[in-house]
Amino acid sequence: MPGTADNEVAPHKRTVIFTPRWAVIIGILAIGFLYLALPESLTFGPNWLLLAIEAVLLIPLLFIGITHRPVPHITLRFFACAVLAVVTLGLAASIVLLVNTVINGSTRGSFLLRSAALLWVTNILVFALWYWEIDGGGPHKRHMSGHQAADFMFPQQADGNKTGWVPEFVDYLFVAFTGATALSPADTLPLSRPAKLLMVTEAMLSLIIIVLLAARAVNILGS
Asked: Which H or E run includes 152?
């Protein structure tokens, strides 16, 4: 009967198959390697610790991706958000340590420039990953909804996304880059409160790094 067939299909639709996250996994590992390049004076514990924690948390995601095993959406979200929480805390801690180092006046120009550049790039990657993960409830839910605008509205979605345009990780990377440079949205608008709060946090961290560089430059010119 039609009703029976619908009931049989529904549970299958609630099973979430692994959505390709290779770009995201590469982005997370890139953050770990950027953190590894930081001086240990700007990290809590050894600078390889974040990369090691990432590797442990990414093992389940890598296993799912390689085996293509169906998993609940909530499981993927848990591991993804756990990794992002760890790298965000690492980023914030390093920026706090950098501010403290500058205030104490114990930085060389080359040290500050290199460290600030690493943290600025890390800031972009961290929030690009957050935007990718929160928009529309994650990549799987975005796919199920036909990639309609949810937490962010890209220009291609302004008319209800009639063309079926699909945002990829590079699109969220662009949003994060413009947020870190212009300190405001460019052509992609944040629609939800979580998206707005994330963009505010990214802009604030980027501004701190830029102000530190400007202050150091003024100090060098004045000496």
From this structure: strand 152-153
Is 37 inside any structural domain? yes
Q: CA distances (Å), 140 to each of 16, 62, 135, 165, in order?
A: 8, 17, 10, 15
7 part of a folded domain: no
**How large is the average pLDDT for residues 107-118?**
80
Q: Is residue 3 domain-resident?
A: no
Report the chain's terminal Cα–Cα distance, integer Å: 85
Residue 19 DSSP one-character state = P
b or e along 195-213 (b: 16 or more beta carbons within 10 Å of the residue's beta carbon)? Answer: beebbebbbebbebbeebb
pTM of the complete model: 0.82
Domain that includes residue 51, residue range: 16-222
What is the chain's mean pLDDT, rounded? 81
Tell me how far apart the alpha carbons of residues 96 and 103 are, in angstroms, rounded to a whole number.
11
Measured CA to CA, the distance from residue 70 to residue 63 in angstroms comes to 11
Tens of pLDDT along 9-29?
333 344 444 445 677 788 888
How many domains, the chain? 1
Distance CA 120, CA 208 (A): 10
144 found inside a domain: yes
